[in-house]
Amino acid sequence: MDVSTLLQVAGGVGLFLYGIKLMSEALQFIAGDRMRHLIGTLTKTPLRGVFIGILVTVLIQSSSGTTVMTVSFVNAGLMTLKQAIGIIMGANIGTTVTAQIIAFKIKDFALPFIALGVALALFGKSKKQRYTGNGIVGFGLLFMGMQTMESATKFMASQGDFLLFLGANPLYGVLAGTILTMIVQSSAATIGLTIAMASQGLLGLDVAIPIILGDNIGTTITAVLAALGTNRYAKQAAAAHVLFNLFGVLIFLIFLPFYKLVVIHTATDVGRQLANAHTIFNIANTIIFIPFASLFARMIQALIPISAPTRVEDTLYLDKKLLDASPAAAVEAVKDELLHMGQIAQNMLRITRRAYSEPETASLADDFMEQEKLLNELNKGISSYASEIWQRGLSGEVSTVLGCYVNASGDLERVGDHLENLMELSEVRLDDGSHFSPQANEEFWAMFDTAEEAVSCAILSLKTEDTDQANYVIHDLENRIDTQEKQFRKNHIDRLNRGECDPEKGVHFIDILSNLERIGDHSHNIAYFTHDISSLTRPSSQG
Fold first, then answer.
1. Are 270 and 81 in contact (CB under 8 A)?
2. Which DSSP state fits 416?
3. Where are the beta strands (DSSP E) in 179-251?
4. SS3 sequence, 335-358?
């Protein structure tokens, strides 16, 4: 093979890969809002995961993107290994759509597609139109790359010795497909080149089918790379992808003659036959393994054991790999981190309750400050992570939802600050030996219970996007805590006037009431964000 031919093949692969990149970016932008809802529909059923994996991969035209997201979700705690296995199986099937597309003989329309796409990209009025234009350009470049590769491979007939070597043993073809796909990190590019060579008569099915099988092993390199530097749960997901495809290839090699016979009868055109070979492998492999998904997950967990469970306080959902894989999915990670903050705030409320009911308990202050420090760090982390998401570009609705999450994070951080004030006031009471009067004690606990309920209900409304729960906080609990604060403040002033309380120490009770009332205000704000989010994420009931 001369240098000119090699460069032409490389150029064709480059056009092909860039075309896929443009299509993938456009589809991710257009379908990004749906991504969050698809993720939200996940259940423990692997079959459900298969369908979601297919749909996501077809939407973004990238099995690599889906597997990277999957590994990131597992790393962030958004998905279990069993769910991830279903997604990976679906991604393998979804990626075969690309092979079916490139098997069509529409290369003559490549330039018109590019012309149409460029016009939309340059002159489109909206961002969605411009992204659509980029996607159409990518579609045209996909076929231009195929045309370039086919043209170049006409001159590769001189490499007969190498092609004979590949045909001598199916394992050589599998190895070639694996290595090539690992290098270009695109199974579609390897399949495209294989179809191009087969269309020129350079590869028979005896060689091309093993290369296609090897391509399915090589494509797992993306998941492996994505798992580097992640936790062992994510490494389990990457290992599941590798072993699932590897076992499938071994099974199909055993039945290679029968597999080839089936492929031959699916079409008369060799390009379509190879596209069908890719589809048959991935569908059949999923059908074989889906009944054993739980057993397969246990096997992976045995191979890569988790030494110890991670405490919820140490779990961070803000995985930077999600930023580029799917900004919409990164927004979902922000919600999970926000709910994690909610758990910490509720823990702080429980510690504060103990500080007032069991003031002599040792180490309460240390436990509280550890939680308060973590709450502050997570608030900063959410703000920083959200800024990076916004830089990737979001639709108006998803951007608004993200803004609500960031604001709610700030409110939870302020809840922590007011609880810190209450802890300090508790220590002051302990130091000077002061106690509430029976009536003041009753009033304190009534208001504390209301504040604690407001925080819990606000967090629950945010988690479930339940507007009824949000309304309960906004109207009932907010009114109750405001009424309590005014009445209890008046009652305390009356007690001071009657000389029932020490004026110097009694002022602390007013500060306590004020902090509890402010906790109610921030709970009200969080519940209000639930209304904003629900109005954007739930379909309209009109029509």
1. no
2. H
3. none
4. HHHHHHHHHHHHHHHHHHHHHHHC
What is 328-537's CATH number, 1.20.58.220, 3.40.50.11690, 3.30.200.20, 3.20.10.10?
Answer: 1.20.58.220
Q: Cβ of 344: how many Cβ atoms within 10 Å?
A: 20
Q: How confident is the model at residue 357, as a pLDDT?
A: 82
Asked if 319 and 333 touch (Cβ cutoff 8 Å), the reply is yes
Check residue 89 and give its pLDDT: 93
Closest by CA to 133, choosing from 5, 9, 25, is 25
222 in Cβ contact with 190 (< 8 Å)? no
- CA distances to 24, 80, 98 from 20, in Å: 6, 30, 9
In whole angstroms, give the CA distance from residue 343 to residue 337. Answer: 10
Residues whose CB falls within 8 Å of the CB of residue 193, separated by 6 or more in sequence, listed in order: 9, 12, 13, 149, 153, 180
* Residue range(s) in the chain whose domain bears CATH number 1.20.58.220: 328-537
HSE, CB side, 13 Å, CA atoms: give it for residue 90: 25
CA distance 522 to 528: 10
Q: Express each pLDDT in 330-389 by its tens digit.
A: 888 899 899 999 999 999 999 998 888 876 655 677 888 888 888 988 988 888 888 888
Query: What b-and-e string marks burial along 348-380, b requiring 16 or more CB atoms within 10 Å of the CB?
Result: bbebbeebbeeeeeeebeebbeebbebbeebbe
The mean pLDDT of 146-161, rounded to a whole number, is: 60
User: How far is the C-alpha of 337 from the C-alpha of 333, rounded, in Å?
Assistant: 6
